[in-house]
Amino acid sequence: MDKEERKIINQGQEDEMEIYGYNLSRWKLAIVSLGVICTGGFLLLLLYWMPEWRVKATCVRAAIKDCEVVLLRTTDEFKMWFCAKIRILSLETHPVSSPKSMSNKLSNGHAVCLIENPTEDNRHGIRKYSQAESQQIRYFTHHSVKYFWNDTIHNFDFLKGLDEGVSCTSIYEKHSAGLTKGMHAYRKLLYGVNEIAVKVPSVFKLLIKEVLNPFYIFQLFSVILWSTDEYYYYALAIVVMSIVSIVSSLYSIRKQYVMLHDMVATHSTVRVSVCRVNEEIEEIFSTDLVPGDVMVIPLNGTIMPCDAVLINGTCIVNESMLTGESVPVTKTNLPNPSVDVKGIGDELYNPETHKRHTLFCGTTVIQTRFYTGELVKAIVVRTGFSTSKGQLVRSILYPKPTDFKLYRDAYLFLLCLVAVAGIGFIYTIINSILNEVQVGVIIIESLDIITITVPPALPAAMTAGIVYAQRRLKKIGIFCISPQRINICGQLNLVCFDKTGTLTEDGLDLWGIQRVENARFLSPEENVCNEMLVKSQFVACLATCHSLTKIEGVLSGDPLDLKMFEAIGWILEEATEEETALHNRIMPTVVRPPKQLLPESTPAGNQEMELFELPAIYEIGIVRQFPFSSALQRMSVVARVLGDKKMDAYMKGAPEVIASLCKPETVPVDFQNVLEDFTKQGFRVIALAHRKLESKLTWHKVQNISRDAIENNMDFMGLIIMQNKLKQETPAVLEDLHKANIRTVMVTGDNMLTAVSVARDCGMILPQDKVIIAEALPPKDGKVAKINWHYADSLTQCSHPSAIASEAIPVKLVHDSLEDLQMTRYHFAMNGKSFSVILEHFQDLVPKLMLHGTVFARMAPDQKTQLIEALQNVDYFVGMCGDGANDCGALKRAHGGISLSELEASVASPFTSKTPSISCVPNLIREGRAALITSFCVFKFMALYSIIQYFSVTLLYSILSNLGDFQFLFIDLAIILVVVFTMSLNPAWKELVAQRPPSGLISGALLFSVLSQIIICIGFQSLGFFWVKQQPWYEVWHPKSDACNTTGSLLWNSSHLDNETELDEHNIQNYENTTVFFISSFQYLIVAIAFSKGKPFRQPCYKNYFFVFSVIFLYVFILFIMLYPVASVDQVLQIVCVPYQWRVTMLIIVLVNAFVSITVEESVDRWGKCCLPWALGCGKKIPKAKYMYLAQELLVDPEWPPKPQTTTEAKGLVKENGSCQIITIT
Fold this sequence. Notes:
Elements: H1 2-5, E1 6-9, E2 17-24, H2 26-38, H3 42-49, H4 51-58, E3 59-61, E4 69-74, E5 81-85, E6 87-90, E7 136-142, E8 145-150, E9 155-158, H5 168-173, H6 181-191, H7 203-211, H8 214-228, H9 232-265, E10 271-275, E11 281-285, E12 294-296, E13 302-303, E14 307-310, E15 314-318, H10 320-323, E16 328-331, E17 358-359, E18 364-369, E19 377-382, H11 388-397, H12 405-434, H13 439-453, H14 458-475, E20 478-480, H15 484-489, E21 494-497, H16 499-503, E22 509-517, E23 520-521, H17 537-544, E24 549-551, E25 554-556, H18 559-568, E26 571-574, H19 577-582, E27 589-592, H20 607-612, E28 620-629, E29 634-641, E30 648-653, H21 655-660, H22 671-680, E31 683-692, H23 699-704, H24 707-710, E32 715-723, H25 730-739, E33 743-747, H26 752-761, E34 770-777, E35 786-791, E36 826-831, H27 832-841, H28 846-852, E37 853-857, H29 861-873, E38 878-882, H30 888-893, E39 896-899, E40 911-913, H31 920-958, H32 965-983, H33 1004-1030, H34 1050-1064, H35 1071-1091, H36 1105-1123, H37 1127-1133, H38 1140-1175, H39 1186-1195, E41 1206-1210, ...
Parallel strand pairs: 21-33, 21-38, 33-37, 34-36, 36-37, 38-39, 39-40
Antiparallel strand pairs: 1-2, 2-3, 2-4, 4-5, 6-7, 7-8, 8-9, 10-11, 10-12, 12-19, 13-18, 14-17, 14-19, 15-16, 15-18, 20-40, 22-23, 22-32, 24-25, 26-27, 27-28, 28-29, 29-30, 30-31, 31-32, 34-35, 35-41, 41-42
């Protein structure tokens, strides 16, 4: 039973959860109902907020297999609880419900093996998911995903489509025929409707959800309490504030829902044609599509309503929705292993690995190509929320909570305030009982203390700074969809940059070419567009080996391909759809040089020449394309020159890869050196290769041939050298970040040496710094995994270790400041493959490499995300800046992700910059720091406000008095709200400084600052309160009291006498009240000024004109009514008249208070950091951040950094905590 009770679903994935089963219990339900009635509904609210308590209070534990309710808990650091109701899907109602037709429907819960033949007998398949013979399937829905009970694994599992566990062969053999109508209807029952439903909740639903927030419930409680105590005005003010807050919150939440709804609604319902088993074509709504349907892609294109794999024809797709790149991508049909000349073996289909053959949901098919009248077909592999777009929408609908120390500390702080309120609550009750006060009054006054201590305006005050920061960011072109992250950006101490399009210009310029003849490099040539080369294989390769296409008459495609094609000046012509349909073997795309480049026809005099002369028309047709694959790092085409019998294969890609696929005798001996020279200078190098194909390869055979059969045994033709210029602002921005002690890291898909060179050019790696390349090799032939360490500048002398001078080994610089540890003079560089090996086999080296890893080259999108996680694991606050192309995962995972692409991919990123340059990074960090400091200021101020008011009320309770309604109103509205909303307006400081703001509220200096101000304020309030009683004119105030000798001016007195009798019952008018009111009013303004920090993170507060004006106005007003009483104001604020000398005394108390407060705050600021730890006897602290602690350790580690030409091996094949040893190879 116990094993049955707790299981894991989505194991090893991001949304892994524990699952517990429960059944509803009637007696528990009855007890809870009684509790709800007794607590006036409060218990119901508590259970609404806490799903775990709700389930445990009303249900009993049960086996997961038979339970009615499941309780889920995430296994990440947040441990969030959710509950879901088990529902039953009945299959009996469906006509196709015999076990035969459901054969192996939901095979093993890991892969859905969808068998097409309804007569195939596999009676056990359905029972894995359904209960015994009853044909009922139990399931629950969580975060828009359905989880079905699977009998095989005795657990719930979600339904997968054809994207897992299905081989490429079976896609062609079993799935390409289409589904029968019965099969389709059955699947539709299981998979449900194919839509990404973002329901925009009704305003009423959102309102209820918002109003049931604990904070608003507390406000409601406060308002009811104040109303019973006749504090109507303040109650009304809070109600108005809450309504404004709720309305603005509802507006922004609903606006986000509507935006998201509109974004997914574009393809929600379109009519699509699907092929059925008997080759008939049926038109259905896209919402009826299920995995296994064969969809016909229309000629004029469409927006994809699902994820589908292409099995016939070619499509040109705009994937900007997913990748952020508006460059059209060519998608070809999935290679069919069974008809390939050289089979790939039975490879499993995976949408990620086969993304060049997969059409993703939400992407736009611009046009399709088909041959010999065949339809362009694709098999649906995923529908609804399982699609790539569905997963993106789910991540937006159900985001992971942002864990930030500030917010955790804020809750702790509120708890402290609640504890203080508890003390006041008990004190009030005891004091009132001793003074024999009525029970009703005791209850109201004691509860009132709680509402005073925990200020209802706190959340509004806290978000003010963030809202202002968001507005300022918008002005400089940075848009934010997750405002809470602005504060976190203030903490960033490491920023990862993508290279292409981020640090460097987006496009590449052709610098030149270096051809190879007879396995020798010729000298570099600048101009490719000349008559000499026009008919060379080199130019033919440039003309054909690309994925360019004409869209509405304009050439478009990969910018790199465009640059190369423009450089040769050729013309590209595509066959029209009519031609493609008519002719059997029409060449889909033809390229030819412009007439002026072709040599003139030679005179007839030279008979010999004429024999060899090519026809006047020189055209090359592109027969088959193998699109660029980042996994293979190459692309190739099969082409035929008009009139030639044999076809040609051309290939281009990463030089190392191309060279390995060429005949060794055609690759120059100095290939490695030449390549290295170019890459070290920061050039992007692409290699070209060619070979003549056998004449037996017909056009039709080529259409089905595998890549591997073409891409081998090639002749190496030479290199194209592209220049990727740094963006103008890059070096200056990186220098600013370095000055501010913010580490910079490069994460790119480009070649390692190019990346290192760019890192040196832009100042990421300084000229004197050493670069250590970690080349990790996975275990092979029984040998363990190992890392070879090379020093980048000495790579060329690898064969002569003695040539490496002793100074090549980096120096460890010992620094006093831990922050400077990052400045040690060595950097690690590695590529994606090495990074994966290190993560898997060298776990203990990962943190060390993270500390000095600066260049990560050839990184795949998921590796970028893993890198961000690895950096976060050593306590870095990581920012990521990319152009959105393949950085979506990393942008989402980072603490602050900034996308430089304005396309819809930026939905994944919390921040999007309108200007496509990295200058937005320091701007964002500056604004983040300003917002963070503002949050601290506001928090400290609100804390002081609570404590000052709490103490005022506690003092007055001791004489059974209180502050008047209008006094509360004046303090809370005129002083507090005005100050809070204007003190948040300080703009960010002009430049980034090396110092970083604290990350949490619970830090020594901050707590000391708050505590010292509390003591000062309490001291001066108490002084005023007790000193007034010592005055010779003091008496217990009564309506006839006349401390000011105002009997002469009867006007003042008579205006008071009308209301005296009714006011007296609250005992508000007395000398103590007036004294406490004036002193505390000034104290709020004093702490506001003391806490309004300017430099180094915000502009000084005198530049915040609204704040300065508000504070001066309030000072003048309070000073005026204190020194020169105005009868009408005194009457409203229920202030009594005190002698002039006491007014002057109060002014002196206030001035001394101001002097002490501001002096203490300045001292804490200036000496707090160095003196507090010393005063508390801490001595040398162990740094809290793991990376700082690690840096301290590495300073004394003689084995680190690794010496040149050494190898680190993993210890044995068995993982022993990933430990490793260093072996020196001589």
